[in-house]
Design a protein that fits this description.
Layout (H helix, E strand, L loop, with lengths): L4 E4 L9 H16 L3 E6 L11 H11 L6 E4 L14 E2 L6 E6 L3 E6 L7 E3 L7 H11 L4 E5 L3 H14 L5 E5 L21 H6 L4 H10 L2
Parallel strand pairs: 1-2, 2-3, 8-9
Antiparallel strand pairs: 4-7, 5-6
Helix pairs in contact: 3-4
């Protein structure tokens, strides 16, 4: 069996809420169940929205939850910023269906016409999320990707990139979203709902209680 490697890749543009923490936990538990490895990767390519010190804060809160990565790094460590240009680079898609057997939802198919020729390199020479995440997941030999259902469309785009490079495609599983009392998806910028891990820490919640709560949210 191929060595299991999972990852949690938060963006330092908003604080860690219970939805992100649950995603990290499920990836961590899945990897450790199969004696695999769990990686923490900070997706800091959105330079205009990154918040200083937030990546360290997220890592500390995961450690508080006993979610300890085997390796952690910043995605930008692999980038070299260059002078701005007035053009972007897009991936030209073939007319086809992108299909995968989702670990949570079963068969999913998205037509290429729903995606258009999406940008992979911005005019500041920084890669877009979908491009950089495929490169990193391939280099880190990520075998399974568990994340929220809002990434389903991204998965089709990423499969297109895997096929372009002729790389092995990881197995994908899209978790259900966690909603607030009004049935709305949690947002890391929503200050009205008590959802941030730092809030539970300050209120004195035992970490094992939060750990158990997140585990049962699936």
């Amino acid at each position: 069996m191929t060595k299991i490697r999972t990852r949690f890749a938060p963006s330092p543009t908003g604080k860690l809420h219970i939805g992100g923490a649950r995603t990290a936990l499920f990836n961590y538990i899945f990897a450790k169940h199969y004696n695999g490895e769990f990686i923490l990767r900070c997706e800091d390519t959105d330079t205009k929205r990154n918040i200083d010190g937030l990546a360290k804060e997220i890592a500390q809160q995961l450690e508080w939850l006993e979610i300890k990565p085997d390796m952690s790094y910043f995605e930008s460590e692999k980038q070299k910023r260059e002078a701005e240009n007035q053009y972007v680079i897009r991936l030209k898609l073939n007319t086809k269906d992108y299909h995968w057997n989702d670990l949570v939802r079963g068969d999913i198919t998205i037509k290429s016409q729903e995606l258009d020729d999406f940008v992979i390199l911005k005019n500041d020479k920084y890669p877009t999320y979908n491009f950089s995440v495929v490169i990193d997941d391939h280099e880190q030999q990520i075998s399974h990707i568990l994340r929220g259902e809002e990434h389903i469309t991204n998965t089709a785009k990423q499969i297109a990139l895997y096929e372009t490079f002729n790389w092995t495609i990881p197995k994908f599983g899209h978790l259900t979203i966690i909603v607030n009392e009004f049935g709305q998806k949690l947002s890391k910028r929503d200050e009205k709902t008590k959802q941030l891990i730092e809030e539970f820490i300050k209120l004195g919640y035992p970490k094992l209680a939060i750990f158990n709560y997140l585990t049962l949210l699936g």
